Amino acid sequence: MTASPAPASPELVRREDDSGVVTLTLAQSRNRNALGLAMIDTLIVAFADIARDKAARVVVLAGEGPALSAGHDLREIQAHRNDPDRGQAFYELIMTRCATLMQAIVALPKPVIAAVEGVATAAGCQLVASCDLAIAGEAARFALPGVAIGLFCSSPLVAVGRAVSRKAAMEMALTGRLYAAAEAERMGLVNRVVPAGRALAEARALAADIAGRSAATLAIGKRAFNEQIEEPLSVAYALAAKAMVDNLAEADSSEGIAAFLEKRQPHWSA
Question: Are residues 42 and 103 in the same domain?
Protein backbone atom coordinates (compact mmCIF):
# COMPACT_ATOMS: atom_id res chain seq x y z
CA MET A 1 0.00 0.00 0.00
CA THR A 2 1.94 3.02 -1.26
CA ALA A 3 -0.79 5.25 -2.65
CA SER A 4 -0.44 8.98 -2.17
CA PRO A 5 -2.57 10.77 0.43
CA ALA A 6 -6.11 11.55 -0.67
CA PRO A 7 -7.12 15.18 -1.37
CA ALA A 8 -7.87 17.31 1.70
CA SER A 9 -11.42 16.86 2.98
CA PRO A 10 -13.19 19.86 4.56
CA GLU A 11 -15.52 17.38 6.26
CA LEU A 12 -12.55 16.12 8.26
CA VAL A 13 -10.48 19.28 8.67
CA ARG A 14 -11.73 22.87 8.35
CA ARG A 15 -9.37 25.64 7.29
CA GLU A 16 -9.83 29.31 8.19
CA ASP A 17 -7.47 32.11 7.12
CA ASP A 18 -7.16 35.44 8.90
CA SER A 19 -4.32 37.89 8.25
CA GLY A 20 -1.66 35.23 7.79
CA VAL A 21 -2.93 32.96 10.58
CA VAL A 22 -4.29 29.64 9.34
CA THR A 23 -6.50 27.68 11.72
CA LEU A 24 -6.89 23.98 11.00
CA THR A 25 -9.71 22.41 13.00
CA LEU A 26 -10.13 18.65 13.21
CA ALA A 27 -13.89 18.33 12.67
CA GLN A 28 -14.80 14.75 13.57
CA SER A 29 -15.98 15.27 17.13
CA ARG A 30 -18.25 12.19 16.96
CA ASN A 31 -15.14 9.99 17.16
CA ARG A 32 -13.00 12.44 19.13
CA ASN A 33 -11.07 13.46 16.04
CA ALA A 34 -9.40 10.07 15.80
CA LEU A 35 -6.39 9.90 13.51
CA GLY A 36 -7.73 7.37 11.05
CA LEU A 37 -6.06 7.08 7.67
CA ALA A 38 -8.41 9.60 6.01
CA MET A 39 -7.83 12.17 8.77
CA ILE A 40 -4.05 11.71 8.61
CA ASP A 41 -4.02 12.02 4.82
CA THR A 42 -6.20 15.12 4.97
CA LEU A 43 -3.80 16.77 7.43
CA ILE A 44 -0.77 15.83 5.31
CA VAL A 45 -2.35 17.51 2.28
CA ALA A 46 -3.45 20.53 4.34
CA PHE A 47 0.08 21.13 5.63
CA ALA A 48 1.51 20.69 2.14
CA ASP A 49 -0.92 23.34 0.88
CA ILE A 50 0.10 25.69 3.70
CA ALA A 51 3.79 25.15 2.93
CA ARG A 52 3.17 26.46 -0.62
CA ASP A 53 0.93 29.33 0.49
CA LYS A 54 3.02 32.50 0.82
CA ALA A 55 0.16 34.28 2.60
CA ALA A 56 0.12 31.67 5.38
CA ARG A 57 2.55 32.65 8.12
CA VAL A 58 1.51 30.76 11.27
CA VAL A 59 -0.73 27.72 11.83
CA VAL A 60 -3.06 27.03 14.74
CA LEU A 61 -4.15 23.40 15.12
CA ALA A 62 -7.38 22.80 17.06
CA GLY A 63 -10.03 20.13 17.55
CA GLU A 64 -13.81 20.34 17.52
CA GLY A 65 -15.67 18.85 20.49
CA PRO A 66 -14.29 17.09 23.57
CA ALA A 67 -10.82 16.32 22.17
CA LEU A 68 -8.01 17.68 20.06
CA SER A 69 -7.56 14.02 19.12
CA ALA A 70 -7.91 10.74 20.99
CA GLY A 71 -5.26 9.09 18.82
CA HIS A 72 -5.53 6.39 16.19
CA ASP A 73 -8.95 5.06 15.17
CA LEU A 74 -9.01 1.76 17.07
CA ARG A 75 -12.14 0.55 15.26
CA GLU A 76 -10.35 1.03 11.94
CA ILE A 77 -7.27 -0.75 13.24
CA GLN A 78 -9.28 -3.65 14.63
CA ALA A 79 -11.29 -4.04 11.41
CA HIS A 80 -8.12 -4.67 9.43
CA ARG A 81 -7.35 -7.75 11.49
CA ASN A 82 -9.78 -9.43 9.08
CA ASP A 83 -7.50 -8.68 6.10
CA PRO A 84 -5.78 -11.69 4.48
CA ASP A 85 -2.47 -10.60 6.08
CA ARG A 86 -4.21 -9.87 9.43
CA GLY A 87 -3.72 -6.15 8.87
CA GLN A 88 0.07 -6.10 8.51
CA ALA A 89 0.13 -3.99 5.32
CA PHE A 90 -2.44 -1.53 6.65
CA TYR A 91 -0.63 -1.14 9.97
CA GLU A 92 2.63 -0.42 8.16
CA LEU A 93 0.83 2.11 5.97
CA ILE A 94 -0.89 4.00 8.75
CA MET A 95 2.20 4.16 10.98
CA THR A 96 4.28 5.40 8.05
CA ARG A 97 1.65 8.01 7.13
CA CYS A 98 1.38 9.13 10.76
CA ALA A 99 5.17 9.59 10.91
CA THR A 100 4.96 11.56 7.65
CA LEU A 101 2.36 13.88 9.19
CA MET A 102 4.37 14.52 12.35
CA GLN A 103 7.52 15.21 10.35
CA ALA A 104 5.60 17.52 8.01
CA ILE A 105 4.64 19.65 11.02
CA VAL A 106 8.25 19.83 12.19
CA ALA A 107 9.54 20.53 8.66
CA LEU A 108 6.92 23.18 7.86
CA PRO A 109 8.79 26.51 7.50
CA LYS A 110 6.09 28.22 9.56
CA PRO A 111 5.35 27.93 13.30
CA VAL A 112 2.55 25.58 14.34
CA ILE A 113 0.64 26.16 17.59
CA ALA A 114 -1.63 23.52 19.14
CA ALA A 115 -4.78 24.79 20.89
CA VAL A 116 -5.90 22.01 23.22
CA GLU A 117 -9.27 21.67 24.93
CA GLY A 118 -10.38 18.30 26.29
CA VAL A 119 -8.15 15.28 25.69
CA ALA A 120 -5.05 14.72 23.59
CA THR A 121 -4.09 11.09 23.95
CA ALA A 122 -1.75 8.61 22.22
CA ALA A 123 -1.17 9.89 18.65
CA GLY A 124 -3.19 12.97 19.65
CA CYS A 125 -0.59 13.72 22.33
CA GLN A 126 2.07 13.05 19.71
CA LEU A 127 0.39 15.71 17.57
CA VAL A 128 0.70 18.27 20.38
CA ALA A 129 4.34 17.37 21.00
CA SER A 130 5.13 17.73 17.29
CA CYS A 131 3.85 21.32 17.22
CA ASP A 132 6.25 24.17 17.95
CA LEU A 133 4.07 25.64 20.69
CA ALA A 134 0.97 24.55 22.59
CA ILE A 135 -1.71 26.37 24.57
CA ALA A 136 -4.00 24.27 26.78
CA GLY A 137 -7.32 25.02 28.40
CA GLU A 138 -7.22 24.22 32.12
CA ALA A 139 -9.57 21.24 31.62
CA ALA A 140 -7.31 19.67 28.96
CA ARG A 141 -5.88 16.21 29.67
CA PHE A 142 -2.93 14.39 28.12
CA ALA A 143 -1.97 10.72 28.07
CA LEU A 144 -0.04 7.95 26.35
CA PRO A 145 -2.52 5.22 27.35
CA GLY A 146 -1.59 2.47 24.90
CA VAL A 147 -0.08 0.25 27.60
CA ALA A 148 -3.58 -0.29 29.01
CA ILE A 149 -4.70 -1.99 25.79
CA GLY A 150 -1.51 -3.89 25.08
CA LEU A 151 -0.18 -1.39 22.52
CA PHE A 152 2.79 0.57 23.88
CA CYS A 153 2.89 4.15 22.59
CA SER A 154 6.28 3.79 20.88
CA SER A 155 5.63 6.23 18.01
CA PRO A 156 4.10 8.94 20.22
CA LEU A 157 7.20 8.69 22.42
CA VAL A 158 9.35 9.90 19.52
CA ALA A 159 7.71 13.33 19.70
CA VAL A 160 6.83 13.38 23.40
CA GLY A 161 10.34 12.23 24.35
CA ARG A 162 11.74 15.25 22.52
CA ALA A 163 9.30 17.68 24.14
CA VAL A 164 9.68 16.61 27.79
CA SER A 165 12.39 14.88 29.83
CA ARG A 166 13.07 11.21 29.10
CA LYS A 167 11.88 10.11 32.53
CA ALA A 168 8.65 12.10 32.24
CA ALA A 169 7.97 10.64 28.80
CA MET A 170 8.60 7.10 29.99
CA GLU A 171 6.36 7.59 33.02
CA MET A 172 3.56 8.74 30.72
CA ALA A 173 3.96 5.66 28.53
CA LEU A 174 4.53 3.14 31.33
CA THR A 175 1.56 4.25 33.44
CA GLY A 176 -0.85 5.38 30.72
CA ARG A 177 -2.48 7.77 33.17
CA LEU A 178 -4.17 11.07 32.33
CA TYR A 179 -2.11 14.16 33.09
CA ALA A 180 -3.80 17.45 33.96
CA ALA A 181 -2.99 20.56 31.93
CA ALA A 182 -0.98 22.02 34.81
CA GLU A 183 1.19 18.87 34.92
CA ALA A 184 1.70 19.05 31.16
CA GLU A 185 2.84 22.66 31.55
CA ARG A 186 5.34 21.71 34.27
CA MET A 187 6.73 18.93 32.07
CA GLY A 188 7.11 21.27 29.09
CA LEU A 189 4.55 19.54 26.89
CA VAL A 190 2.54 22.79 26.69
CA ASN A 191 3.71 26.40 26.96
CA ARG A 192 0.93 27.66 29.15
CA VAL A 193 -2.51 26.92 30.56
CA VAL A 194 -5.44 29.29 30.09
CA PRO A 195 -9.05 29.23 31.33
CA ALA A 196 -11.15 26.43 29.85
CA GLY A 197 -12.55 27.41 26.46
CA ARG A 198 -9.88 30.04 25.84
CA ALA A 199 -7.14 27.90 24.25
CA LEU A 200 -8.08 28.67 20.64
CA ALA A 201 -8.43 32.41 21.21
CA GLU A 202 -5.13 32.57 23.09
CA ALA A 203 -3.37 30.48 20.42
CA ARG A 204 -4.71 32.74 17.69
CA ALA A 205 -3.55 35.84 19.57
CA LEU A 206 -0.09 34.34 19.93
CA ALA A 207 -0.12 33.36 16.25
CA ALA A 208 -1.11 36.89 15.22
CA ASP A 209 1.83 38.30 17.19
CA ILE A 210 4.28 35.85 15.59
CA ALA A 211 2.79 36.47 12.13
CA GLY A 212 4.04 40.04 12.37
CA ARG A 213 7.66 38.84 12.27
CA SER A 214 9.78 38.20 9.18
CA ALA A 215 8.64 34.98 7.51
CA ALA A 216 12.15 34.28 6.20
CA THR A 217 13.64 34.71 9.66
CA LEU A 218 11.04 32.41 11.26
CA ALA A 219 11.69 29.72 8.66
CA ILE A 220 15.45 29.82 9.17
CA GLY A 221 15.11 29.85 12.96
CA LYS A 222 12.67 26.95 13.14
CA ARG A 223 14.76 24.81 10.81
CA ALA A 224 17.99 25.55 12.69
CA PHE A 225 16.45 24.79 16.08
CA ASN A 226 15.13 21.42 14.96
CA GLU A 227 18.40 20.50 13.22
CA GLN A 228 20.64 21.24 16.18
CA ILE A 229 18.56 20.29 19.21
CA GLU A 230 19.42 16.55 19.15
CA GLU A 231 23.07 16.99 18.09
CA PRO A 232 26.22 17.01 20.25
CA LEU A 233 27.16 20.47 21.49
CA SER A 234 29.94 21.13 18.96
CA VAL A 235 27.74 20.05 16.02
CA ALA A 236 24.80 22.06 17.38
CA TYR A 237 26.88 25.22 17.57
CA ALA A 238 28.21 24.69 14.05
CA LEU A 239 24.67 24.26 12.69
CA ALA A 240 23.39 27.26 14.65
CA ALA A 241 26.31 29.45 13.52
CA LYS A 242 25.66 28.59 9.87
CA ALA A 243 21.97 29.39 10.35
CA MET A 244 22.83 32.80 11.76
CA VAL A 245 25.24 33.51 8.90
CA ASP A 246 22.52 32.54 6.43
CA ASN A 247 20.05 34.69 8.34
CA LEU A 248 22.39 37.69 8.24
CA ALA A 249 22.52 37.36 4.46
CA GLU A 250 18.75 37.83 4.26
CA ALA A 251 17.33 41.26 3.36
CA ASP A 252 15.01 41.11 6.38
CA SER A 253 17.98 40.88 8.72
CA SER A 254 19.55 44.00 7.25
CA GLU A 255 16.20 45.80 7.44
CA GLY A 256 15.50 44.63 11.00
CA ILE A 257 18.87 45.75 12.35
CA ALA A 258 18.63 49.07 10.53
CA ALA A 259 15.14 49.65 11.91
CA PHE A 260 16.35 48.91 15.46
CA LEU A 261 19.27 51.30 15.15
CA GLU A 262 17.06 53.95 13.56
CA LYS A 263 14.34 53.43 16.20
CA ARG A 264 11.56 52.67 13.70
CA GLN A 265 9.31 49.74 12.77
CA PRO A 266 10.84 47.29 10.27
CA HIS A 267 9.30 46.65 6.87
CA TRP A 268 9.62 42.96 6.10
CA SER A 269 10.05 41.66 2.58
CA ALA A 270 7.26 39.07 3.01
Answer: yes
